[in-house]
Specification:
Number of helices of chain B: 8
CATH class of the largest domain in chain B: Alpha Beta
CATH superfamily of the largest domain in chain A: MetI-like
Radius of gyration of chain B: 19 Å
Number of domains of chain A: 2
Strand content of chain B: 25-35%
Oligomer: heterodimer
Largest sheet of chain B: 6 strands, mixed
Structural class of chain A: mainly alpha
Distance between the termini of chain B: 34 Å
CATH architecture of the largest domain in chain B: 3-Layer(aba) Sandwich
Helix content of chain B: 25-40%
CATH superfamily of the largest domain in chain B: P-loop containing nucleotide triphosphate hydrolases
Distance between the termini of chain A: 34 Å
Strand order of the largest sheet of chain B: 6-7-8-3-9-10
Order of helices and strands of chain B: EEEHEEEHHHEHEHEEHH
CATH topology of the largest domain in chain A: MetI-like fold
Order of helices and strands of chain A: HHHHHHHHHH
CATH architecture of the largest domain in chain A: Orthogonal Bundle
Radius of gyration of chain A: 24 Å
CATH topology of the largest domain in chain B: Rossmann fold
Chain lengths: 264, 261
């Protein structure tokens, strides 16, 4: 009985695994055929085949230049967020004074729509990578600060008592107990922030840039080259996904204990 | 034993906390007792009687509101090196393996772990019955095994005094019994002054030389019981008629005296 069911079970197993990919393929097929069937003009909604075709009409070097520019701003902004966000979180977690003074300001900054501030930042900081990095930083750093602070405060009180009973000092308490304990929290923020970093870079490029995928999309749209704009969008999604997966891989590879048991 | 020096002494200790509503809460009131060198004393009482406060006062993690706590004749003003603590939950570090958890006090206190510390940790792991588990991740261990690691960690700096805060209360009943006998064996091999906090009457009876029975809010010593059972304690101790009689007596003290007072 079990023997005769095996091929069927295997088929169901693979169907289950491939369901997300299949759903995606079905969506593309429906998209392709409905644009043809209803003769939707390509400047309203280009067919997937048209997007791919137009994308290849653009020189690969140009694509790489835009991708590199966006990726550089996103990664620098992301790195700055981590380098400033984590020490800031330590300060907020350890000092009541800092959390009473700085935290309200951080909330105000977070409540400001960064997209609206972007043009002002560009005027203030001029051209170059600097304003773009700052905009990316402003969008990415808040989740990192909040998650890290939460993680630092979530350390079991008994471990803090162990540290105090050994009179190890505040520095070792943070470095050897609190910070490692916060890693699961930090990594979830780092994953969210990859997407935010790409958003930040694109917003900055919309406002002022002569390079990058955000600039390319805005530029293509203004000339009604919608299929190429869509191709730029596909690149952005790909970058976001790759960065997200890269952080996930680093977590799995170097700090597997910080993952829930089912994901190790 | 009668002439052994005093390890821990409480002299008129009171402890007042500020509650969430801002009102003071008297956790302990005028507590006086002393524990002799290498004596095993259990503090037994209901939840909220201040047993854990008593342990933290001894550890120097908190200071008394009134009176004085002294260890080896010196007033406790901060945590001391010669006191080891085993907590209610094992509180191991999941990013380290078992051995690194045991050597953690060295890494944390001095910033380095020497070969001799590793050797000492391995000897302690053998003592607590985890010789072959040194390289295991702590997540792979059962609750009882994790608490064995917690005991080994507390013994690493070779403290004279071991403070245990309901160390087996999170374990299932069978593991709990097993761990009690294990603790007796370990204590026999490495004699220490032990202050053992518990709310289990059989556990206190089996392990201790003396039991301090506490009443709730404010925490006071309701009764002091010196146990008559000879050592080493065995399974037979559990079926000693005096064991049952004392258990009943303590239950009576815990459940009836507060109403009479």
């Amino acid at each position: 009985m079990a023997e005769s069911n095996r091929p069927l079970a295997r088929l169901l197993f693979w169907l289950d695994r491939l369901t997300p990919a299949l759903a995606f393929v079905v969506l593309l097929v429906v998209w392709e055929f409905s644009t043809r069937l209803f003769a939707i003009p390509s400047f309203l909604l280009p067919a997937p085949s048209r997007i791919v075709g137009d994308a290849f009409q653009v020189d690969a070097g140009i694509w790489l230049g835009h991708i590199q520019s966006t990726l550089r701003v996103a990664l620098i902004g992301y790195a700055v967020s981590i380098l400033i966000g984590i020490p800031l979180a330590i300060g907020l977690a350890k000092s009541r004074f800092l959390s009473r003074t700085l935290y309200p300001m951080l909330v105000v900054v977070q409540s400001t729509p960064i997209v609206a501030v972007a043009p002002i930042i560009v005027v203030t900081l001029g051209s170059g990578d600097m304003p773009r990095v700052v905009i990316t930083f402003l969008i990415t750093f808040f989740p990192i600060v909040v998650s890290t602070t939460t993680g630092l405060m979530a350390t079991p009180p008994e471990l803090i008592e162990l540290s105090r009973s050994l009179r190890a000092g505040a520095f070792r308490e943070v470095m050897q107990i609190r910070l490692p304990y916060a890693l699961p929290y930090i990594f979830s923020a780092l994953k969210i922030s990859t997407t935010l970093a790409v958003i930040g870079a694109v917003v900055a490029e919309f406002v002022a840039a002569e390079k990058g995928l955000g600039f390319y999309i805005a530029f293509s749209t203004s000339f009604f080259k919608i299929p190429q704009a869509f191709a730029g969008l596909v690149c952005l999604v790909a970058i976001s996904l790759i960065l997200f997966r890269a952080v996930g891989y680093i977590q799995k590879r170097f700090v597997p204990w910080s993952l829930p048991k089912t994901e190790r | 034993m009668q002439h052994s020096p005093v390890s821990i002494a409480f002299d008129g200790v009171g402890q007042v906390f500020t509650g969430n509503d801002g009102k003071p809460i008297q956790a302990l009131a005028d507590l006086s007792f002393s524990i002799r060198h290498h004596e095993f004393v259990s503090v037994l009482g209901p939840s909220g009687c201040g047993k854990s406060t008593l342990l933290r006062l001894t550890a120097g993690l908190i200071l008394p509101s009134s009176g004085a706590v002294s260890v080896f004749g010196l007033t406790v003003t901060e945590p001391r090196d010669d006191v080891g603590i085993v907590f209610q939950s094992p509180t191991l570090l999941p990013w380290y393996n078992v051995l690194d958890n045991v050597t953690f006090p060295m890494r944390h206190k001095y910033g380095r772990v020497l070969a001799e510390d590793v050797a000492r940790a391995q000897a302690l792991l053998a003592l607590v019955g985890l010789k072959d588990f040194a390289q295991k991740r702590v997540g792979e261990l059962s609750g009882g095994m994790q608490q064995r690691v917690g005991i080994a960690r507390a013994l690493l700096l070779d403290p004279d005094i071991l403070l245990m805060d309901e160390p087996f209360s999170a374990l299932d009943a069978l593991t709990r019994d097993e761990m009690s006998f294990e603790l007796l064996r370990i204590w026999h091999e490495r004699p220490k002054t032990v202050l053992f906090i518990t709310h289990s009457i059989p556990e206190a009876l089996l392990l201790s030389d003396r039991i301090l029975v506490m009443s709730a809010r404010p925490g006071r010593i309701a009764e002091e019981i010196v146990l008559p059972f000879e050592r080493p304690r065995t399974m037979a101790t559990l079926s000693d008629p005096r064991f049952t009689a004392l258990a009943n007596h303590i239950r009576h003290t815990l459940f009836h005296k507060p109403e009479a007072a």
